[in-house]
Amino acid sequence: MHDHTGEPCLDNFQRPLHDLRISVTDRCNLRCMYCMPGEVFGRDFVFLRHAELLSFEEIVRVARQCVALGVRKIRLSGGEPMLRHGIERLVEMLAGLHDDDGKPIELAMTSNGTLLAKKARALKDAGLMRLNISLDALDESIFRRMTGGGSAPEIVLEGIAAAQSVGLTPVKVNAVIKRGVNESEILPLVRRFRHTGVIMRFIEYMDVGNTNGWRLDDVVTAREILALIDREHPLAPIAPSTEGEGVAERWALRDGSGEIGVITSVTQAFCHTCNRLRLSTDGKLYTCLFATEGVDLRALLRDPSGDDATLRQRIAAAWRCRTDRYSQLRHEMTETLPGRIEMSYIGG
Length: 348
Ligand code: SAM
Ligand code: SF4
Ligand code: SF4
Hints:
This protein is of the alpha/beta class. Helix content is about 30%, strand content about 15%. It contains 11 helices and 12 strands. The protein has helices at about 55-70, 85-95, 115-125, 140-145, 155-165, 185-195, 220-230, 300, 310-320, 325-330, 345; strands at about 20-25, 75, 105-110, 130-135, 170-175, 200-205, 235-240, 250-255, 260-265, 275-280, 285, 295. A 12-stranded mixed beta sheet has the order 7-8-9-6-5-4-3-2-1-10-11-12. The longest helix has 14 residues, at about 155-165. About 40% of the residues are buried. One iron/sulfur cluster binds near residues 28, 35, 78, 112 and 134.
């Protein structure tokens, strides 16, 4: 929890740096309407060129300095992280990171699961510990509508089964619920994953990026979701787990058949405990999902005279001056802020 000065790395609201989310690619094989809508991310969209991406060695250099500053959990995201060529090698390199007591850093990934059936074994062997899979619908046509085509729910389900069989457990499945599109899938998803050990979590649709045309009316609130589930499967609260920005409210199905969660990103801000730093695909640090500007590390990483001490100072400085609490302030805002970055670029 300490940097070289012996002090914990705290931001302006005394929040410690604890989680690092790394976007390994800005590309994706799906076009989810709430994240990379096909109308915007079409054939003409210009993605980052390979030379603009941080190399695995550069990513690990940043991660190592973040660990020195207190990071204890690293999550790989994107875009679709499994599209990054050789991702298992990056997992293996990051799995070598330890804290001061020799304890390995928790290493997780968020994926759409479409390539998982093929990759689960290699990722597990490389040292991946946990996996969150996004699956918004079991119904084929609703899935297609949500994700822009490009895959099918059966393929993701095969991936989830593969993850379970290699021991990447407990698998968490995340569904973003958008009103008028997939709220009819909430109960089928709960039913599908009862008795399987999979933790099904529902995420409130967020106003992230500029491209998804977010409206408050599109949000199905966690309260609505819980009420719906509770009518069919009575729920009991479970003590919260603290995950920083990703704090999920946990609920047990009273009949003992499983656990579900809701992520109240819109209706209940968890900025006061947010301890997450994000590294974009091209090497910028963002201290909030809703930040408009990042701190570039790539130039320093590629400068032959740029040393690790300077890198660590740059990261610590970015965290220490952090004042982000966008979700807390959101309700006071009357209009969408311009110029926000996209989730696919920064890593949801
Ligand atoms: N492609 C991977 C996936 O879909 O899991 C990883 C990247 S994706 C950006 C990470 C997570 O962000 C996914 O669970 C996705 O559903 C979520 N997400 C993206 N846009 C969102 C939005 N507008 N509101 C809520 N969650 C969103
Ligand atoms: Fe791709 Fe994930 Fe965004 Fe869907 S949510 S478009 S799968 S990056
Ligand atoms: Fe953290 Fe920003 Fe989300 Fe608040 S809005 S929880 S500060 S990422």
